[in-house]
User: Fold this.
Amino acid sequence: MHISPYFRNLRSAYFAELDDLSQDSEGLYVLNQRLAQRRKEIEFLVHMLEISPEMVAVVFHKAFRFTSLAAMDHLLTHEAEELPEWDSVADTIELAPWAHSLVQTVRKQPMGDWFLSVAAALEYLYTKPEHPQAAPADDGASEDAPHDTEREGRAPFDGADDEDDEDSTRARDEAGADWMVEQGFDRKD
Assistant:
């Protein structure tokens, strides 16, 4: 399967974002609680769709059931500016009932349809069956979202472009930090 450089670079940032949200400082599994909180913050997060799509895409974690793997594999071959319309992508996806209002909120944004294609592709990459998964202990999952059996010990698709991934991730992190400072937040160093 071919993955465009755009999705190859964004994949590691998305995986890292989910990993960062997974555990608290005491090592307890808290992904469901943190995702529920992020979903409540969607009105603020939509302002980051273009700058840091991986930080917003996590609100759709476990929201998609992919009915056409071939269509999703094809989506991954596109660069950011070449993504198909959301309506054509949505035809190959079943959306969890709890995510419908999130989709409507995102679609109101100028780049909302583009972002939903990105979010679906990132979640598809995360759930690809060729990567082994291990289920963590149940942490009393949120009722707002489905029970989460997260992947642990993921291996990247290939070892190529690790340096490019790091440079791209660093550039996105810096752009995100700059945007947060513009919004009135202190820079985290």
In short: Residues 82 and 124 are 18 Å apart (CA to CA). Confidence is low (pLDDT under 50) at residues 131-165.
